[in-house]
Amino acid sequence: MAPAEVVTWAVLSQRLPLISMASAENEACAVQSIACPSQAWRLQTVRLDSAGRVEGPRTSGHVTGKMAVFPWHSRNRNYKAEFASCRLEAVPLEFGDYHPLKPITVTESKTKKVTRKGSTSSTSSSSSSSMVDPLSSVLDGTDPLSMFAATADPAALAAATDSSRKKRDRDDNSVVGSDFEPWANKRGEILARYTTTEKLSINLFMGSEKGRAGTAAFAMSEKVRTRLEELDDFEEGSQKELLNLTQQDYVNRIEELNQSLKDAWASDQKVKALKIVIQCSKLLSDTSVIQFYPSKFVLITDILDTFGKYLSYEMCLFCQELGDHFSPENANDTAKETCLNWFFKIASIRELIPRFYVEASILKCNKFLSKTGISECLPRLTCMIRGIGDPLVSVYARAYLCRVARLTWGSVSCSALLLNSVMSAFRAEFIATRSMDFIGMIKECDESGFPKHLLFRSLGLNLALADPPESDRLQILNEAWKVITKLKNPQDYINCAEVWVEYTCKHFTKREVNTVLADVIKHMTPDRAFEDSYPQLQLIIKKVIAYFHDFSVLFSVEKFLPFLDMFQKESVRVEVCKCIMEAFIKHQQEPTKDPVILNALLHVCKTMHDSVNALTLEDEKRMLSYLINGFIKMVSFGRDFEQQLSFYVESRSMFCNLEPVLVQLIHACVAYCFITIPSLTGIFTRLNLYLHSGQVALANQCLSQADAFFKAAISLIPEVPKMINIEGKMRPSESFLLEFLCNFFSTLLIVPDHPEHGVLFLVRELLNVIQDYTWEDNSDEKIRIYTCVLHLLSAMSQETYLYHIDKVDSNDSLYGGDSKFLAENNKLCETVMAQILEHLKTLAKDEALKRQSSLGLSFFNSILAHGDLRNNKLNQLSVNLWHLAQRHGCADTRTMVKTLEYIKKRSKQPGMTHLTELALRLPLQTRT
Amino acid sequence: MGTALDIKIKRANKVYHAGEVLSGVVVISSKDSVQHQGVSLTMEGTVNLQLSAKSVGVFEAFYNSVKPIQIINSTIEMVKPGKFPSGKTEIPFEFPLHVKGNKVLYETYHGVFVNIQYTLRCDMRRSLLAKDLTKTCEFIVHSTPQKGKMTPSPVDFTITPETLQNVKERALLPKFLIRGHLNSTNCVITQPLTGELVVESSEAAIRSVELQLVRVETCGCAEGYARDATEIQNIQIADGDVCRGLSVPIYMVFPRLFTCPTLETTNFKVEFEVNIVVLLHPDHLITENFPLKLCRT
After folding, report:
1. B118 and B173 share a domain?
2. Which SUPFAM superfamilies does UniProt cross-reference here (chain B) (predicted)?
């Protein structure tokens, strides 16, 4: 059996949620699962006894084979050829291989793969979910952007954050709090990441100082060289150029410099200390080994930090008696003077880069000079960086300034631009916990050049990511919205409001959200401002949906639907509707009958449906159908089937352009039928409705529903009374039953076997029911039915069945002419034949010769039509039956003559020559 | 260590103005008691002028140094001959800063050809066997703030190849346009020199932009005068090929001692200028000169 067929089965037998309504009525149809028919096949063979009887609670003792067992051999039929022979000759059209409109063929393997994918997805049978996106393979991490991100410049990383680290740098965090990522973590990361194998060099020029700063420390490995250099030192300062250093050497040397700085400071050689710092900072202007630069930056800023710390410690010593709360006014004159001295000295550093770094490193000391020292100095230093031509060096300089300044920013009344930078660069948690402070600062800050609404937007973005303290939340919203609502420009307003909607949804109830939505509507409606802001408005809807999973609450937000009305451009409107429906399908757990939800969503779905036109792409249609179906499936009125049906009727009239939706509705209606039919009184009405519903279900590929209908019909048959009231007269029901059953058989031909119930389980059950039915004493109906069953079984044993239902694989393709299946089929035939023959025998006893003759001839005709008369036994049986029909002179001679003529005529057809011989063995009884 | 003599001036910054009282202590510290023939304190203020070699020739310069001009000179006897006990002895003093006649207390200035310096000298005379002890200490005089508000005098400048003088081959110069302004050339000495500089365009890469603070000292005498310009400090404001069109701040703090309010007397002058120096690749040096007027408010 080809795997593709198995998959088809699996796809088709997926259970629809709606049928679960019916499960109370009929458990049999509830459980469906994916299994290979061949497995069920094996189970079934066990369940058959040697005589081919169906094992069951019923004793079927009278179905025995006392008579000689005639094996059934169905005649092989070629329905196509037979049909062709009966009509005008068809001339096949020659199609060339090439045709411009011929669709591009998809390779087999691919198709299968997709199908299989679909089969594993659980409840929904939508194929849209299993689409293979050809673009996805392109995006397997090889796009240039992600590659770029992987090798991104660490300067950005220095400002970025990493929440995984928990270590705290106690020293620095007193101001910024414990949620600030300490530099110490970043530092280690950078050092570990940016390494090099290239040779490095250090070029130190110690100014005019005669003392050889750090010489002793340097002398370790390059003694000779250093000695030689020492000779030069007498001229003008000490210049050292250390070449060909490995990275480790370099690190060691910088560490030595750090040490000599400490030594110099300790031995009160402050000027020497300053010179070391200047020389080190100078190294940062050299970008020759660029991949090592971040690490170099870290090493050298370490030295700067040491220096800055020393200096501010020294200042503090002078101010010790003043305690921590010193102010420049009461700062000791000596401290002030010393500080001033340092500043003058540093201000006269010739080169820009060292001057910048050293100034930045002692930024903190500005507070000893004046209250506003730091706030004046920061912008100046920021501007100073503009003078650095090398972009890398300047970015790092900026990073250093940020790092130094972050310790002091709290006390600074910042410019709006700076505030915004802080809010976009720092971790959201950090910002969120200080939201109130930020709001205060935003209110006070200087707005020039950077509008405040952007600041509120930035703050909102942070609050969307991290939560502020619970106690502040309402106040934050009030403060922020107070500003936002005053924004005159709709664009400014919506950009800001859009961000804050998320915060509102996250922390507040529908009341607040409603207020916010109302405000947005109020701002965006005048002059149709919404037309320019669809993306933002869409985002608002998305955010609201993301937080309100309960749709009854969502739709009870009064302004939600009016808000939707702002989307007046159809494409946008449909997009929004899609979002809503996606959210509904995702989050709605329980079926609903809430009229608020139903009304709103019907409206939403109708919008989506109405957007469909001749130009709509298939994909789009599929998507819309999927969404609408998702909605229909979630609607349940419980036991109120009438309302359910009226809902379906309403839906049908609304969504008539989308075929998948109609299919869904049919499914739903099929379920409705199943539930409603038992409430009818007319037994045949019920039977026929079951059959029709089953056929409809089958036609719509609702296999399990069809099975359920057929089973229901079968189990209803025993209840058929002998007499029924037709138009006031009581009449025997058998002929009606016969008619129904023949109809039923025709349908059963194409009903595929259920994978779990064994081969031909419906036919078997039906046979058992027929067997047990209490037939009229003097009636041959049962045998006529058996004859029909024989026709059915013959048709079933064909390689290709006479008819099919589109998209439904009947047993012919399911079993593919499997020999076991055919054997099972034949066994059933034999049982049925035995029954017929048994009955013919009893008729002889009862002297009902006329009936016997008629039945015999009918049986003969059946064999002639469906049996393979090349089989000797069957051939003999037919001859016997011929004789039986004529034995007591009960046969109608004209019928017999016509039959014989027919046989002779048939024998002339190709492959029917054996009939010639048969005809010779069939004598016509002359009337005596 | 035997006996140590030290002068401690009360003000940490040692800055005084005319008419103020300079106060402090003389500290004598010794393990043993100290015999002495008296301790005196001298306050002295002089202007030292020197003719540059360039102006008058090496030998003349060496010999013909202009006589120092004395601004202030007074001595007080602090302690009569006697004996200091062992340990630390502090002797307070007060010196009113008053000049005689029409002399002016010029502001302290350390230059190359002009030096204006004020010192306190403490002398401890001792017996023949022990050496006299001397300690000198400089204090700083700031001229009294000038009255009236200083009017800022902003200057805009544009530097292009066309604006340059002293160019040999103008055609060989790369094209450039540098614009900027100084917020004022009338500067308060305690406030930094500020302004902005924008490299609007430049064919050649910028190597460096520097601010060169220059002192112009003029020593005049009957025979004529010598005028010399020397660099005080050079502050780099741009390093490397800076972004075009982005203003680079001009910012320079006037160094103490090496600058003073612009001074003009009958005998000498001290003036200041700033040069904006732009270095272009490979080897062009462009200088724009701005005379400054420094004052103290």
Report:
1. no
2. E set domains
- First and final C-alpha spacing in chain A: 59
User: In this structure, what CATH number is given to the domain that contains residue B291?
Assistant: 2.60.40.640
Query: Has residue A305 got a pLDDT over 80?
Result: yes
Nearest CA among A29, A31, A32 for reference residue A12: A32
Say how many domains are in chain B.
2
> How far is the C-alpha of A604 from the C-alpha of B115, rounded, in Å?
91
Question: What does the CA dihedral A783, A786, A787, A788 come to, rounded to 10 degrees?
Answer: 130
**Backbone dihedral region of A368: left (phi > 0), alpha (psi from -120 to 50 degrees) or beta?**
alpha
Q: Does A287 touch chain B (CB under 8 A)?
A: no
- B245: nearest CA partner in chain A: A386
B218 and B131 in a single domain? The answer is no
In the structure encoding, which two tokens stand for residue A916, read together? 């010639």
Residue B146 lies in a domain: no
Average the pLDDT over each of A32-36, A242-246, A449-453, A913-917 and give the range with the smallest value: A32-36
Q: Please provide the average confidence, as pLDDT, over all residues in chain A.
A: 74
> Is B263 near chain A, with CB under 8 Å?
no
Least confident of A236-240, A583-587, A812-816: A236-240
- Residue A21 is which amino acid? M
Check if the beta carbon of residue A591 is closer than 8 Å to that of residue A631: no
**Residue B222 domain-assigned (yes or no):** yes
DSSP tag of A446: B
- Tell how many helices (H) and how many strands (E) occur in chain B: 2, 21
End-to-end CA distance of chain B: 46
Nearest CB among A285, A334, A387 relative to B248 is that of: A387
Residue at which a domain ends, from B107, B141, B175: B141
pLDDT of residue B178: 93
CB–CB contacts below 8 A, A to B:
75
What are the pLDDT digits (tens) for A738-769? 889 999 999 999 999 888 888 888 888 888 88
Q: Are residues B288 and B165 in the same domain?
A: yes
Burial of A724 (0-12, 13-18, 19+ CB in 10 A): middle
Is the predicted pLDDT of residue A778 greater than 90, yes or no?
A: no
Q: Are strands B133-142 and B15-17 parallel, antiparallel or unpaired?
A: parallel
pLDDT at residue number A18: 33
- Is residue B53 less than 8 Å (CB to CB) from chain A? no
Q: Cα dist. A177→A172, A362, A429, A438 in Å?
A: 9, 22, 11, 15
Radius of gyration of chain A (CA): 46
| Contact assessment for residue B105 and residue B18, using Cβ atoms and an 8 Å cutoff | yes
- Rounded to whole angstroms, the Cα distance separating B111 from B258 reads 6
User: Phi/psi of residue A262, each to 5°?
Assistant: -60, -45
**Chain A residue at shortest CA distance from B205:** A389
Query: A336 to each of A152, A359, A794, B22, B115, how far by Cα in Å?
Result: 44, 16, 114, 20, 27
| Position B213 in a domain | yes
Domain with B230 in it: 155-295
Cβ-nearest to A388 among B233, B235, B239:
B239
What are the φ and ψ backbone dihedral angles of A905, each rounded to 5 degrees? -65, -45
Strand partners, A54: A48
**Distance between alpha carbon B33 and the CA centroid of its chain, in Å?**
41
Convert the pLDDT of each residue in B235-273 to its tens digit. Answer: 999 998 998 988 999 999 999 889 999 988 888 889 999
The CA distance from A284 to A394, in Å, is: 10
Residues in chain B, how many? 297
pLDDT in tens, A88-109: 665 655 555 555 555 554 444 4
Q: Does the residue B118 lie in any domain? A: yes
Pairing of strands B176-182, B193-202: antiparallel
> Residue holding tokens 């000695």?
A227
Q: What is the pLDDT of residues A310-357, one digit of tens each?
A: 887 777 766 654 444 455 555 567 777 877 888 888 888 999 999 999
